[in-house]
């Protein structure tokens, strides 16, 4: 009788442990399910503007008025989207030169933008195209695989106590056209060299 009683007590303990584990797991899923993420339409070539304050821990606000028709305020990070094919992510500083960023996908570092010297005299304004094209402003590009993505951006250097930057995921068709353009240019240069 003692061994049956011990077995019954052991089974009750196992059942309590199992129920506790299930309850904790369900609670964690509820908490994780309530974490907010902002879905963005990507890839569509839109530049998304983000802003940050005096600390360098991360993005504390987003948006602001759109400076151009192809600039949008993405909402609060993390920014989520799904890709059907390989494409690139581009990130650039804006306004005053000197802000530098780390970009994360599902918490893993995927990009650190270029290191530049801070200079309060260089102000590109709210122009993501100009900032991305200028070597004076921190920027970077990284390839993204097909599938789900969850981006966050952390400010690693902000010499002026705040600022803004932009990111975009261009359409894969745009990249294909760009690649064909480069191939065509290379073919024309090769052909020109043969005739000279």
Sum this structure up briefly:
The chain has 196 residues and is of the alpha+beta class. The protein has helices at residues 2-34, 128-133, 172-195, and strands at 38-39, 47-52, 61-62, 71-72, 79-83, 87-93, 96-97, 100-105, 108-112, 119-123, 139-144, 147-157, 163-168.
Task: Set out the fold topology.
Layout: H1 2-34, E1 38-39, E2 47-52, E3 61-62, E4 71-72, E5 79-83, E6 87-93, E7 96-97, E8 100-105, E9 108-112, E10 119-123, H2 128-133, E11 139-144, E12 147-157, E13 163-168, H3 172-195
Parallel strand pairs: 1-5, 2-4
Antiparallel strand pairs: 2-3, 2-13, 5-12, 6-11, 6-13, 7-10, 8-9, 8-12
By CATH, the architecture of the largest domain is named: Sandwich
Mean pLDDT: 74
| Binned strand content | 25-35%
What is the CATH domain class of the largest domain?
Mainly Beta
- The domain tally reads 2
- Quote the CATH topology of the largest domain: Jelly Rolls
* Number of distinct helices: 3
DSSP E strands, number: 13
Which range best describes the helical content: under 10%, 10-25%, 25-40%, 40-55%, 55-70% or over 70%? 25-40%
In terms of structural class, how would the helical and strand content be classed?
Answer: alpha+beta
Poorly predicted runs of 5 or more residues = 14-35, 60-69
Description:
By secondary structure, the chain is α+β, with helices and mostly antiparallel strands. It has two domains: 1-35; 38-180, Sandwich (Jelly Rolls). Helix content is 32%, strand content 33%. It contains three helices and 13 strands. The strands form three sheets. Strands 2, 3, 4, 6, 11 and 13 form a six-stranded mixed sheet that branches. A five-stranded mixed sheet has the order 1-5-12-8-9, with no helix packed on it. A two-stranded antiparallel ribbon has the order 7-10. The longest helix is centred in the N-terminal third of the chain and has 33 residues, at 2-34. The radius of gyration is 25 Å and the shape is extended. The relative contact order is 0.19.
